Amino acid sequence: MSTKDSKPNLSHSQVTEIIRRLYGWTVSVIRPLPSYDDQNFYVAPSEGGEYVLKAMNSADSHNITLIELQTHTMNFLHQRGLPAQTALPTLTGKLMSLEEFGFKCLLKKYLVRLLTYLPGTTVAKITCSPQILYDVGKMAATLDTVLLQMEHPNISVLQRADFIWNLTSVPLLNQYIHVMDGDPVQNVVKAVIKQYQIQVVTKLPLFRKCINHGDFNDHNLLVKPDGPSKYQISGILDFGDMSCGYFIFELAITIMYMMIENPNPVDVGGPVVAGWESVFPLNEAERDSLYLLVLCRFCQSLVLARNAVIQQPENEEYLMITARTGVRHLCRLWELGKEEVERIWFQSAAQFSQP
What role does it play (predicted)? Predict the structure, then answer.
């Protein structure tokens, strides 16, 4: 099933009916929110409160156990003081509902949840100071550390074999690389994949394991003002890419996404690493692999976004948000090389950490 075929296309009237039937509320305000392959709506009932109705794509909606675990994770983090959304129970006490839409043989089922709405501005819309980058790195490490304590009877579903967005799946990009035919950047992507197989795969046993959020990006992090010129993190969104992985994966993903809108992208790594290591210091193998893993995430974003646009050409603007800028950053990091980038990142991190 293609992404285009699996993404929901609910109307405002359908959302209004879902809220009335499942939660007993009357919608007074509704507006669409962006999403990669699901469908999200901001909903304000006349009874009060602000929420996000999330309809999962039909492909993921088949994996109810995984969505249940993601929902449990959000509640678990919220209970431990991290700013994650929580799911509201329906009138029958369930945290999600499998809804059917369409006509006769074209019926499709979508898992629907109503989540708390977290106020704030996405990190993508602010100018990130070194301090907020430090806080983002610290929050990413804190999240993964807290998740080490989580227990659940179905936690094994996070062993998502061949999940394309996990950094263990970088070699799987080879099956999509044709979408870049004719683009000179394809050579860089191929070289990065090859280096991953040579340099990173052998180090995997030395990386420390954890559960990854997997999409700690500038559109999934909310901040709110903290004084005249500072911000604090007010929300962590979208746990759809959760999987078992490694601490170093989360750090690499975080650095990559924090680079996207930054006017000095190469300088981002230092404060993010400093914040991360204030919670979870890197070992030698992790530190030696960070540069290449950041490149790998850029490659994943670029190749998979191009592939998604083929499936959803009408959603190109949103799908290519990261990839359009990311291709320049990928090439710049590749040109600078591992030694120079590591020097910038780790020297900056050491200076940032000094009292």
Answer: Catalyzes the GTP-dependent phosphorylation of 5-hydroxy-L-lysine.
Alpha carbon 154 to its chain's center: 22
**DSSP strands (E only) in 72-199:** 97-101, 108-116, 121-122
Count CB-CB contacts under 10 A for residue 31: 10
Side by side, the strands of the sheet bearing 121-122 are 121-122, 221-225, 231-236
Comparing 102 with 5, which gets the higher pLDDT? 102
Amino acid sitting at position 227: G
Query: Percent of the chain, pLDDT > 90?
Result: 80
Pick among 3.90.640.10, 3.40.50.10240, 3.40.50.720, 3.90.1200.10: CATH of 121-353: 3.90.1200.10
Domain boundary assignment for the chain: 12-116, 121-353
Confidence of residue 324 (pLDDT cuts 50, 70, 90): confident
d(CA 142, CA 148): 10
CATH-assigned architecture of domain 12-116: 2-Layer Sandwich (3.30)
Retrieve residue 263's tokens: 């006017």
Among the listed residues 215, 218, 238, 241, the single catalytic one is: 215
Give the pLDDT band of residue 2 (cuts 50, 70, 90): very low
Provide the pLDDT for residue 1.
37
**Residue of 235, 231, 232, 209 whose CA lies nearest to 222:** 235
Topology match between the domains 12-116 and 121-353: no
Residue 307 has pLDDT above 60, yes or no: yes
Helix axes 247-259, 130-147, angle to 10 degrees: 150
Report how far residue 265's alpha carbon sits from residue 255's, in angstroms, rounded to the nearest whole number. 9
pTM of this structure? 0.91
Asked whether 317 and 310 are in contact (CB, 8 A), the reply is no
- Judge whether 60 counts as a catalytic residue: no
Nearest Cα to 217, choosing from 292, 326, 314?
326
